[in-house]
Hints:
Shape: extended
Distance between the termini: 58 Å
Number of domains: 2
Helix content: 10-25%
Number of helices: 2
Strand order of the largest sheet: 1-2
Structural class: mainly alpha
Order of helices and strands: EEHH
Radius of gyration: 25 Å
Amino acid sequence: MGFVYYSNEDSGLRANGNASATNFATDHRPVVFDVFLPRDPAVPFTPPEDVNANGAVDIEDLYLWENGFALAAPPLPIPAPDINGNRNIELADRDIIRTALRAGESADVIIQ
């Protein structure tokens, strides 16, 4: 997040927190903004669901996640990865991988 405040009336003195820098009334307000920088195209993007980083979300990713989740008791250093980024390793992470695996399937299969 960035913060910008500058006024020609006080040569930017208020930017340093000096409230008495000028006696002119001003309508200037701080501008707060987020800066999103583009990702480096030279670095390949791997979605979080691709646990083994082989370029595809497949059953191996689910298998690795399940094993990591089952064995994630101390003192093991490498638990299952946090897929949804909420800093918790939970079954919701597994559901995201399962959803990615089943993305190409029909929602309802009718057997006649």
